[in-house]
Fold each of these.
Amino acid sequence: MALTFAAATGLPCISYMVHADTALNPTDRITPMKAIFDFKSADEIARENKWCRKNPFGLLYEGAVSANEPGKVQVRPIAYDNNGIRIAANIYTPADWSADGGKIYPAVCVAHPNGGVKEQVAGLYAQKLAERGFITIAADASYQGGSGGEPRYLDLPSIRTEDIRRMADVIARFPGVDANRIGLLGICGGGGYAFNAAKTDKRFKAVATLSAFNTGLVRREGFLGTQKDTVAERLRAAAKQREAEAAGAPVAYTANMLDWPKEKGLALTQDLYRDGYEYYGLTHRHPRSTFSATVTGLLEMAIWDARDGASLIDQPLLMIAGDKADTLYLTQGMFNAATGTKDKELHLIPGAHHIETYWKPEYVSQIDAKLGTFFSNHLGSASLKTVSK
């Protein structure tokens, strides 16, 4: 069954699901599988992104796809189930991709930062990789962004890691993807969770992180270790809040600094938070992006550390960070813990702070080139399908 798209928008004419009669594997043989995702309709896409006047897909980064045109990278919003939650994702296809074409492509899953959504930096690098010939997917985490789930803004390592595994399930079944050549890119907190997923999920043949953030360590000890002495007190407060919610109290959230007045946000002294306020709160603000998280989430976060079990990573590993980032110690800690791989590199971007790797053109171009080389070396490029006899 071939995919059909409206000529004007490049969007699907009808909601379409991938079925067992769609050949997806490298040898073009039919592999039985149940329906796993559907393309969103043009009407649904318009409703979700009516707040954004600049881009019909709600994309917020420079150079974003604004229309699906033949011979160019295209973005295809999809939805799929993950443990009963409807996940919102975007798939980016290379300029020469076609649903019934004769090529197979390597793919890369992209995990977004804490509090971020797929339309921000995750989308930027997903598109950049598609421009280099990879089919990519960027999905909103469960309970976050355009994905479903209650309570909102629940961010737990176990859930975020499963979200990444589910991206692999989905992209492996997208037309033209070589399921044996899937890579993984995680950004900020998504970098920590990608690092975690790669420990056991060996479908990911190459793993990269950008400005990786060990969320469990920071939630436990505070950023730069500033809250080590208060962890027991904060855990008691989280446990008390859980008891209250079990008795019917509303869900409590940590403060959302994106709601602060501009002068207060830009006066923050730590680069991560000041630049984060500017990026998420001003220049790249998205209505479904937030710095809030559930108070009770600390009960799981406090006992999670991305470095635990890191020796299980045996895939090629590239970790990119700015050499001026105040989060660099988090990337370095994870990198040093990854003792099981013989192919790893810590690549520093001169002069870059953490958030600047998300948008600043001179840094984005360097990161794009580095990621492109890394994934090309380990996943290869598009190739013609071969038919087994």
Amino acid sequence: MRPKSPDWSRRLPDETPMRNRTAVPHVTLSLGKIGSLIDGLGEYSTQLGHHVAAAAPLWRERWGVRFHFHLPARWIGLFGDEVGYLPVRPWQSRLNLQPRRHAIWHALNQLGRIPPPPGTRHAVMTVHDLNPIYHDAPDAAARAIDQLRRRLSRFDEVITLTHYVESDIRRHLGWQGPVQVIANGVRDLSQAPRSPVAALQGRPYFLHLSRMARSKNPHLLLDLAALWPDHALVMAGPDGSDSRALEARARERGLDNVIFLRDIDDATKAWLYAGCEAFLFPSQTEGFGLPPLEAMCFSKPVFLSTLTSLPEIGGTAAAYWPELDAAAMDATLRAELPRLRTRAAEIRAHALAYRWADCAQACLALYARRLGIEAGAPP
């Protein structure tokens, strides 16, 4: 287990206030051209952003550090009034000119093509996954990896979410620089308001929540649903071509027990988690895997593939499908479901160990180290 990082948002070292120094350290967290705040990248950005923004007044008062968020103009103000905002501009993918020099520029995902501004002292990127190498065609995967390698050449430190992805970064990108593994947190929705789904009341159901892209293996769950006609299978996630194509496929097969729900809010999500028999997640590629942990917060049995980072996240609190075909998955589900129902407290405790506050504190500790705060050196 990693040692806990100092609580940089609350307990501050006895340092000379940086406001008395000539240079004002500016730290920017860049969301880039992020398109949604309700998927995994959006959850990471908003949760980390809110925690860092909460620490901003203390950092400004004690050290003079100014935090900023670089994001699309429609989300300016998202993190409150104690931080600054830098709008994303179309030309920044070529030359990211900013009105001030940055001590730290932290790109919160690897997808954006916006480089750190000229003169940035320390540039950090969070790499969430290297999924293209697992599901893209070889030529497309090679292009994606080459593009990421070129983007990373402008950064001097990487944050990633699991040791599995750290290994991928070393192996496939040839990255020799420092990598910090900082796990995501999970929001505990078990105490949140709940909004029922009328079509499911009084009916047993299994739950799957994802974008339903091919890499999530949602088609395997249709095969499994055919073997459980007395249970509904709820497929929940954002509206999109993948979800609509999968629904059409289910209808063609006459699977009336498969129910699709799109763009659900937290209240509906909480109700679905609370009432499901089990959460099913046979994904082929994951850099982390938030939905399984969300389900575990409700003490629910969770079934995962053995691929990529999922065993690292699920640990001994989940059950795993060693083979991804309907017959083998069905056998595992029937054998493991009764056992997992007896481990409710352990399952919930496993999920609650992943805290966004810990994620933010670890990132703040990285900023502190880069600014020289830990060692008492000037930034």
Amino acid sequence: MERSTRKIALVGIILLVVGLIAWIVQLTGGLLAGSNMTNVFLWGLMIAVFAFLVGFGAGSQFVASAIILSGKEELKPLARIAGACGLACVCAAGVAILADLGAIRNALAMIVGMNPRSPLAWDMIAMCTFIVLSIVQLAMIARDARSVKVWAVLAGLAALALQIVEGLLFSTQTAHGWWATPIMPVDFLAVAFVSGFALILLIACVKGASSKALAWLGCICASAIAVHLVLALIDLCLMFFEGTPESAGILAAVGSNILLYLVELILPFIAMIMLFLPKNRGQKKPAIIASILVIVGIFAHRLMLLFPAYNAPSLYLQLSGTDFTTGPYPISTGRYLDWDLTFANTTPYFPAGPEWLAMLFPIGLALVAAVVILFIMKKLQKDKS
């Protein structure tokens, strides 16, 4: 095992152990004991981590499929790494969902009582399909089988379907205006391309890939960033020109998280400029900096997926028969008091300390799983030879 790989495994184990301890605390004390989640804030930080990891998983598979189908020999070693990262991230995302459920037994309800009309059911089916096809594809890569291109296409289509379903999972939640937009599934696809190519670009720099490979990965990553930023700005403009109380509430919630929102937009924008500059193409140092900026920016993007959605009123109501017949009343982020004519707002959602620590569990698991998968593939290659 290479020295860089051992370091990644060590970091992954440390994150996994710290996160696992925090998760066990949540399991024993309940989610409310170790988080700021309530009956109002149903989806916490772990859902953001779930979307973060799924995006990197699907995006890494896009990279693997593109390399295999292109037939570029100089990129062939990266296909194995990209496929392993894709499988590891999606499996770790599944664990993040288990952590968010609060008790592992709750996962049985999703299987036994599956509703085929529910986007959650589609999501589970899409994830399982992706994992199976990804495993077969990696086995074909390790064996250098002739049918590897067929499995690369199937795994790529599964990744495509997974991201579309993820986007639908949020965009069908009409009670939250920040999510209920047809742009959401398309942006999930764009973010997956950004995430996957940025991750593999960073790994390619560490592995000492050729300048041609770095230029190819960087160009696609920068193009995907451009699409993502355009979609984000279109969504913001639609909210601004809509002019409804709901859209005004969403914009106010975005404004209350303006620093995080700027990180989400500015860091990928800087990375895009760095990767598009002719003098930086194929250069290792700019590629590393740009990749790190993208990863941080995408994580901020996933955090922004939650905060404005939950910190903005999702329903406005006018109470007749009172002195307050013209004002909007946010009822989804507050509680009704019998002795008051209005709804009392709750404090905005922000993850508690144990939530941040538990978040490290699936991230560490993804790192360790990727190393283990690559080790198994190496053993399969040796057995064949």
Amino acid sequence: MKYRKLGKTEKSISSIGLGCMRLPTKDNLQMSQNIDEIETTKMIEYAIDNGINYFDTAYPYHGGKSEVVIGKILNNFKRNEFYLATKSPVWFINSEGDFTRLLEEQLTKLKFDYIDFYLLHSLDSNRWNNIVKKYNVLSELEDAKQKGLVKHIGFSFHDSFDVFKSIIDEYDKWEFCQVQYNYMDIENQAGKKGVDYAFAKDLGVIIMEPLRGGRLANPPENVKAIINSYKPLRTPQEWAMRWLWSQKEISTVLTGSSNLEQLKQNIDFVNNAIDFEFSNEDLEFIEKVKKAYLDRIKIDCTKCNYCLPCPNGVNIPRNFELYNDVFIYENPIPPRMTYQRFMPDIEKASNCIQCEECESKCPQKLEISKLLLSVDEELSKK
């Protein structure tokens, strides 16, 4: 196993960490509460035996059961054999004191006296301004650190680079961050600019969704043909992981393995690599792969946001992004799930009133109102 420093914490962590959001389940339903403890124990034992020392969970994972199971298993190991990371569900904070109450609940579930790496979960502009700052969460976070309940403090993130930069700039005690990043998300969310900015500020950078929820592991045929034609021959997963590891700014990459074989494969990727250098030819190859994915786009939206704000609250670029994902990755399940379960109703394509006000603002001259009907039809399918 190879190790890297996690920013200003100076802690040495494994090049891959085990993400505990998609653990094995007895009912074979992804992220269900019915975690298969026997299989999960085998995975964690194998991970520790093979040098993984970073384990990442969160309050809502597996309907609240991930922390319970992970804590139960890790309590069988020496405390200096691993680092435990979990996250504060800031969306449940409605008043001062809620942060501390939730942290105490998590410590009880985990059955540990302290958490090594504690993150404010899934920050965006709204949660930062209307929860974290409003309810003095940072003050309680610092108090928890002073009491030794958490050792290092950070945040995970889902919003634009500008918001990411503001969150870092407005608080100088961050030690690390966690961002969604892969070769298809270079300009999405925090993106490459965010990774570079955090590194320049001496923050450890932890990567989630390195395979975009598994979609980069199972490419459509036109993409697969390009990958299989390039030498040396490697799997789509290995190319995606190597692309990340080649960047010195990245501290560790979380692998959300849902079975032991996936975990073994990811560990082999690390152990079999002499180094993580990428040649210019390798970078050009990744660009070809990316272009092959993007050639599958159905709606040519550039996310310029000129169409916003919609008078009825529809998030037009986000709807088009989810719709395009159905065709880019030939996997409609993740974008449909996001649309149906996580997207606010006011932002959905179904909330379009066909006023067409947005269409005169669109530089691409898209028939937005008509397209939103198709978006809702596709993303509303079961």
